[in-house]
Amino acid sequence: VVEIAKAIGRLLSVPVDLAAIVKAKDTPELKNVFDFKERTTALQGAFKVNEKAVRGKRILLVDDLYRSGATASIVATALIASGATTVYMLAMTKTRTRT
To answer: Are 5 and 16 in contact (CB under 8 A)?
Structure first.
């Protein structure tokens, strides 16, 4: 994810700030939690935003997995609450299969 974000930043000539949002607390593993509300409850308060880094900016949030949208929703809400003007979301997923 980090390398993809950096490549996008280089291609668009925009900065990539990996410290703009950080995980502030451990959360339970969510891969077997399918209920959106349960996922968002588990993620409340899990991320801390550097307000100075995001205030007045349009943000591209890059993640490796989009399942229910709970993480993206929690993070986007935190970014907007911290002064980001717009949050775009890009998710990439590769399903691994055993052969």
So the answer is: yes
